[in-house]
Design goal:
Methylamine Dehydrogenase, Chain H; 381 residues; globular; five-stranded antiparallel sheet; mainly beta; four-stranded antiparallel sheet
Length: 381
């Protein structure tokens, strides 16, 4: 092929390329690399004022402070409505409460709508259904599960249902009574699963939306775990076929096949190798969006994050572990792009950012960290 006046042709092609790079291809959504990172904290240390909001760049791993909600006592765990307009936070105190906020994603501002009691002491986890009908709260010291309806304006309603757990475990110091640590919605939003550290069980409840008391025990009422393990946090696989349960006291993970509320154990795997000696304190667990890798944090003397490859049968294969470069890693999360993993090191008062290798699952720390007093929970909008 021969072009006449080639210099003009090259110039025209360059201009066309520039225009195509500026304007998105028709039908292709332009990707916004900026996301809000919302941080829950403990305020009783005196180093935090409440909830913090940062802008996070999912291409570069950089961040910028946007705003904060002051005067909120121990907003240790948060959840975000599906439409990103509301944030709900537990107030982890002896007279446990839950607070509702309207959220402006553009400015990052949080405005308190109202706060109501949870009916149990020291609530430590909260979830909300995708249609913003109810919040479900795990009261740790209270040993109970609470359900509170939501009003159309996002505020918390007046009705409350409290389901008490009873019993105790083999560890007389830590399992003297029930300690509900998580309230997780099933993938189809029809059930709530609770992890109870005190009585070594996972309970399953059916949700009847629209009723003043929407929760009732399901036909499959759950499973008991090995005594003394202390169930803490759970996560479903993206397919919804498998449930992964982190057990705090012995730092192990149970893998279950899940079908319509029924759980069948297919694997138990330790987070630390046999030569590890020291205090254990497994905390949080999450799965990459592609369903290929699982990560779990361990506190105590380990202060690391363990990495697993997930097989097609749902079972875990240990890849290795990485130091969280801080003390007491609690909650962690991956940004919406999956490029980065952020860990909240509670007792180091900072959030460490890791670059994530999507093919291998491995983590590499970045040099800059987000300094926040006693960070406990991380949520991206």
């Amino acid at each position: 092929m021969h072009f006449k006046n080639s210099s003009k042709t090259i110039l025209s092609l360059a201009l066309l390329g520039s225009l195509l790079s500026y304007f998105p291809v028709m039908g292709q959504k332009k990707i916004n690399p900026y996301h809000n990172l919302i941080i829950g904290t403990y305020t009783n240390t005196g180093k935090s004022k409440g909830i913090y909001v940062y802008q996070f760049n999912s291409l570069k791993g950089t961040f910028k402070f946007k705003g904060e909600a002051d005067g909120i006592e121990n907003p240790s765990y948060l959840t975000l409505s599906a439409n990103h307009r509301f944030v709900y936070a537990v107030n982890e105190t002896d007279n446990g409460k839950v607070s509702a906020f309207s959220f402006n994603p553009e400015s990052g501002s949080l405005n308190l709508l109202n706060a109501v009691p949870t009916g149990g002491a020291n609530p430590c986890y909260i979830s909300v259904d995708s249609k913003n009908r109810n919040v479900f709260i795990a009261n740790y010291t209270g040993g109970s599960l609470s359900s509170i309806p939501l009003n159309k304006d996002g505020s918390l309603g007046k009705d409350i249902q409290i389901l008490m757990h009873t019993g105790k475990g083999v560890d007389t110091a830590r399992q003297e009574k029930a300690h509900v640590h998580m309230a997780l919605l099933s993938p189809d939003q029809t059930k709530v699963l609770t992890a109870d550290l005190g009585i070594d069980s996972v309970n399953v409840y059916t949700i009847h939306y629209g009723k003043s008391a929407p929760l009732s025990p399901y036909t499959f009422r759950g499973v008991k775990v090995e005594p003394g393990n202390g169930p803490r946090h759970m996560v479903f696989s993206p397919s919804g076929k498998f449930l992964y349960l982190v057990q705090e006291m012995k730092a192990t993970i149970n893998v279950y096949q899940y079908q319509n509320g029924a759980l069948h154990l297919i694997q138990n795997i330790g987070m630390e190798t046999s030569d590890f000696s020291g205090k254990l304190g497994a905390a949080d667990v999450h799965i990459s969006a592609d369903g290929k890798f699982l990560y779990a944090t361990n506190r105590g003397d380990a202060n690391d994050i363990v990495i697993y490859k997930i097989g097609l049968n749902g079972k875990l294969f240990r890849i290795g572990k990485t130091s969280t470069l801080g003390l007491t890693p609690r909650n962690f999360c991956m940004d919406p792009s999956g490029n980065f993993l952020l860990v909240a090191n509670q007792k180091s008062d900072e959030i460490v950012i890791f670059k994530r290798n999507k093919l291998k699952g491995t983590l590499s720390p970045l040099s800059k960290r987000i300094e926040v007093g006693a960070p406990v929970c991380l949520k991206f909008d």
